[in-house]
TrEMBL record:
Keywords: Membrane, Sugar transport, Symport, Transmembrane, Transmembrane helix, Transport. It comes from Papaver somniferum (Opium poppy). InterPro entries: MFS_dom (IPR020846), MFS_STP/MST-like_plant (IPR044778), MFS_sugar_transport-like (IPR005828), MFS_trans_sf (IPR036259), STP/PLT_plant (IPR045262), Sugar/inositol_transpt (IPR003663), Sugar_transporter_CS (IPR005829). GO terms for cellular component: membrane. This is Major facilitator superfamily (MFS) profile domain-containing protein. Belongs to the major facilitator superfamily. Sugar transporter (TC 2.A.1.1) family. The lineage of its organism: Eukaryota, Viridiplantae, Streptophyta, Embryophyta, Tracheophyta. It is found in: Membrane. GO terms for molecular function: monosaccharide transmembrane transporter activity; symporter activity.
Amino acid sequence: MAGGFNTEMSSDTNKQYNGRVTKFVILSCIMASMGGVLFGYDIGISGGVTSMEPFLRKFFPKVYRRMKEDTNISNYCKFDSQLLTSFTSSLYIAGLVASFFASSITRAYGRKPSILIGGAAFLIGTALGGAAANIYMLILGRVSLGVGVGFANQAVPLYLSEMAPAKYRGAISNGFQLSISLGVLSANLINFGTEKIKGGLGWRISLAMAAIPASILTLGSFFLPETPNSLIHRGSDKKAKLTLQKVRGTIDVQAELDDLINASSTSKEPNHLPFQQILQKKFRPQLVMAITLPFFQQVTGINVIAFYAPLLFRTIGLGESASLMSAVLTGLVGTCSTFVSMFIVDRLGRRVLFIFGGIQMFISQLMVGGIMAYKLGDHTELLTKGYAYLVLVFICVYVCGFAFSWGPLGWLVPSEIFPLEIRSIGQSITVAVNFIFTFIIAQTFLSMLCHFKAGIFFFFGGWVFVMTAFVYFLLPETKNVPIEKMDRIWREHWFWKRIVGEELECK
């Protein structure tokens, strides 16, 4: 078997899990993470094409005329259009609905089928978007992409966390956010290139290029192994052992296999449906985190940058090409910062990154809001180039803070805290909450920018302050804790032990 790193259990037990991070598991996780690339690509591509003038002329002529001809409208309101935001947000309402179907499929049939369905839906959405002849066909393509995102976001984080050894789970699971960042960066680069194509066909190429990662995900999913956790949960203990030996690179996997079998046996004892189980008092901390972490991830305001960065940069005075190039820069900063996070998350832990990232985002948002409030009026001249680029610098600082903290950890922590009996429904709730608030922000941001003006950054900054305090007081550290032993962190936490401590001790 391929070489790798030795892995061991956390200090709460005397046992060690044998094995290493093999090339086999790395390649499997890279293939699965293509779902993240597609998610990121769809996030980044929408902001770019909606700033392209040929795209606006064809599908949103009112917005185009307002941008070019209306001198009486506020600088903050030029792109305020519910139809325009529907193009972006329709993906997420479709993903919300799809995530509930994905939960049942992921639980009953495994993680691999959900990844395959997600890839196929991505291909259909890409074809519809690239060939769109009217607004209805365009939005139908986004809906199909949303179905793909719903299945991929349900299955991929679970797949990565279950395939990864406990000691390196943070780094491997953060590969999902790295993939999202790479997808956003790729979309921004493609938008910057296609904007220069004459004839107004650049936006079609931008939308159609998603077919490349979609094809890789769809075809590659046929060759992915199912996770040992899922195989055991569905009664294939013998196959699970063979898979575990293959992904760990050793035949001596009995200790880890026994713990997985015990966890699966425990998960099958209650005679409740998964949703009824997660409502039990003993799972209260996991339920709270499944709701609050994705909610907080969205109210950081990151999707304001991800969806509408080119429009935002045009609002403050940059030209079409400069705005797209600025979006490329923010994408590059996000990708590099996420890559750094992969190397430090299992050394420093989750809490440290959450807190320091929150502080960095809070300060940078106050600076952006302050500059815009001071220098960008409703009908006055736009920002000078000096101030516009200063705003860009602070936005990059903000993106950096998000990309090494709330970006990857908002997916990592929920994927690793659920016991097996509620893992699928827990991930489904996480994805659903994420989609609900992504949809709300995507649909309302341009109106919020119009009404709040520069205050929008103070609004999101306030939420960053609240969520950083939440992590400091209520989120225990999950670094190096095996998934099947994760219940111990709640009974040792100063707050959560009051709720679950007695019940867990009686187990």
